[in-house]
Amino acid sequence: MKQFSRYLIPVCIGLLTFAALRYFNPLPPKEEIANLECNFALVDETKPVAIPLALGEINEISLEAELTNKSIDDGVILWSAEGLAKFEGGTRELSGVVFTTSSDQIRGLGFWRDLPGERADYLRIMTLNQDGGLDWNESVAYAYFDSDPDKLNHPLNYTCKISRNN
After folding, report:
1. Does domain 34-164 have CATH number 3.30.460?
2. Whose CB among 49, 65, 117, 144 lies 3.0–4.6 Å from 148's, allowing a Cys bridge?
3. Distance (Å, rounded) from C-alpha 16 to C-alpha 103?
């Protein structure tokens, strides 16, 4: 019994120290990651998006992206996104943001690729207001290249699905 009590005090001190450290320094929460899949189709098929510096036009776009860096502000969830847009005539790597509700309903999105230098073939896909500013729109987005004179020329109906990696 005497040998047991000799180990009991150091073990108790160790457990209490561990518990105190976890209480005052909890483990950071695991970063939440999700996948986004979107399909975009022109509202008016007579106005396809012309691809600059190439022969071709865009009528439909599929987008797959990984959502990370989730933050919540006033009931709106903001995600950072990195993904790939595919369309007939090419693909583009895109970065951006996605705004959702707590039930994963898309409220708005903005995808672009910010790289050094000015290039006319940088694709952008965004939900915009009538003034061309990023805004909520749960069903229509706009696709345009930096060379487009009017970014509201090519509205696209869109549907998106978010799946969790948990």
Report:
1. no
2. 144
3. 41
